[in-house]
Design a protein that fits this description.
mainly alpha
Length: about 80
């Protein structure tokens, strides 16, 4: 079950998360505190990498390739 969660996280980062997978990820995060913590840690790492890449001039902030699932999920009240 944890491996499936990692698959969902990877698809989220890759930008290949389907609507059904997004719903699964939301459900898993809302139902399981340890997975929610894991997601937040993953999100924090992603944000740190994004910030570093922007600082290094690898891409402009508006061209950031990383998705922002935290905003979508927190708007739904899961976080």
């Amino acid at each position: 079950m944890a491996d499936r969660f990692q698959e969902l996280l990877d698809a989220w980062v890759d930008g290949t998360l389907s609507d059904e997978q997004f719903a699964q990820l939301e459900r898993r995060i809302s139902e399981d505190a340890s997975l929610r913590r894991r997601f937040l840690d993953y999100q924090s790492l992603r944000a740190d990498l994004e910030e570093k890449a922007i600082q290094e001039g690898l891409f402009a902030e508006e061209d950031c390739p990383f998705p922002s699932l935290t905003n979508e999920i927190s708007n739904e009240g899961f976080l």
